[in-house]
Specification:
281 residues, mainly alpha, two-stranded antiparallel sheet, 11 helices, 2 strands, 74% helix, 1% strand
C-alpha cells in the first residue's frame, strides 16, 4: 500500500501528528470492526486488515525517516568532529582512533536507548489503557523520540565504517529498536469477536504476546532492578513467543490479527539476536 493511500484510508492529511493518526485508527477500527458489521463479516475483516496496514505503515515510515518537517532526528556533530580530527593523525594510527570513536559513540547510543526502554516499563507504558492517560502519553512520546534519535544516530554511525563486527552490532541493535517501536504501536483493537477464527487467532496471539512481554521486560527493566540477568529465562520466553506467533500465522493467516502477529514475530526474532550478540556467555 502506497503511503499516500494509507493517509487517505485513515482520512487524514500527511501533516497530521501521530496522536491524530492513532485516534483516527481507533475510531475507524471500532466502526469497521467485524463485530460491528455482522452482516458483512468478510468485508469488515478486509477493511480492518487494510486499516492495520495503513496505521503501521505510516508510523513505521515516520520512525524510519530521518527528516520530519525539515528536522533531523539524529545528532552526528560529535561523530563528524571526531573523524575530522583523525585526519590530523598519522596514517598508521587512524584505524585505532576510528575504532575508539565508533566504540565511544555506540556505547552512548546503547545507554540512551536502554534508558528509554527502562522508562517504558517504569511508567507502565506497556499497558495500553494506562498509556492513554495524558501524562503517560507524553512519556511514551518522549520514549519514542529518544529511540528514534538513537536509531538514526546509529544508522549514520554505520556509514562511517566498513568493519564487519561494527556493522553487525549496529544492524542488530538498530533492528531491535525499530521492531520494538513497531511492536509498541500495536493497539490490539478487540471487541467481543463473534467470528470464531478471530477468537482462536487472538487466543494464540495473546499467548505469544504475553511471553514476549515478560521476556523484554526482563531484558530492559527487571534485570536492572534485580541486579542480575535471567538470560535463560528470557531466551526461553522468546522461543515460546515465536512458537505461538508462527503457528498463529500458519493456522489463521487471514485473521485480523495476522499483521500484529507478524510485527511481534519480527520483534521477537530481533530480540533473540540482540541477546545472542550482546549477552553471549
Amino acid at each position: 500500500m502506497e503511503i499516500c493511500d494509507c493517509y487517505k484510508l485513515l482520512e487524514l492529511p500527511e501533516c497530521a501528528p501521530n496522536e491524530e493518526i492513532t485516534s483516527a485508527f481507533k475510531r475507524l477500527a471500532h466502526k469497521y470492526h467485524p463485530d460491528k458489521n455482522p452482516d458483512r463479516v468478510q468485508w469488515a475483516t478486509r477493511v480492518m486488515c487494510d486499516l492495520n496496514i495503513a496505521y503501521t505503515t505510516i508510523l513505521s515510515q515516520r520512525f524510519g525517516d530521518a527528516n520530519v518537517n525539515g528536522n533531523k532526528y539524529y545528532d552526528d556533530k560529535e561523530t563528524e568532529k571526531g573523524f575530522k580530527e583523525t585526519q590530523k593523525e598519522e596514517p598508521e594510527i587512524e584505524d585505532d582512533v576510528k575504532f575508539e570513536i565508533l566504540t565511544e559513540q555506540f556505547v552512548k547510543i546503547r545507554e540512551s536507548a536502554k534508558e528509554a526502554l527502562y522508562r517504558y516499563f517504569q511508567y507502565g507504558l506497556d499497558n495500553l489503557v494506562q498509556r492513554e492517560q495524558i501524562s503517560n502519553r507524553a512519556q511514551f512520546n518522549n520514549v519514542a523520540f529518544s529511540l528514534r534519535k538513537c536509531y538514526h544516530t546509529l544508522m549514520n554511525l554505520a556509514k562511517q565504517t566498513n568493519d564487519e563486527e561494527f556493522i553487525e552490532h549496529f544492524d542488530i541493535f538498530g533492528r531491535m529498536i525499530f521492531n520494538f517501536y513497531k511492536s509498541s504501536e500495536c493497539l490490539n483493537i478487540l471487541d467481543s469477536y463473534d467470528n470464531i477464527i478471530d477468537v482462536e487467532a487472538y487466543r494464540m496471539y495473546k499467548n505469544g504476546d504475553d511471553a514476549l512481554h515478560y521476556s523484554h521486560k526482563e531484558i530492559f527493566y527487571d534485570r536492572h532492578n534485580r541486579g542480575y540477568f535471567k538470560r535463560d529465562y528470557a531466551t526461553l520466553l522468546i522461543s515460546e513467543a515465536e512458537y505461538y506467533f508462527i503457528n498463529t500465522l500458519k493456522i489463521y493467516p487471514t485473521s485480523t490479527w495476522a499483521l500484529e502477529t507478524k510485527i511481534k514475530l519480527e520483534y521477537a526474532t530481533s530480540l533473540k539476536e540482540y541477546i545472542d550478540l550482546f549477552f553471549s556467555q
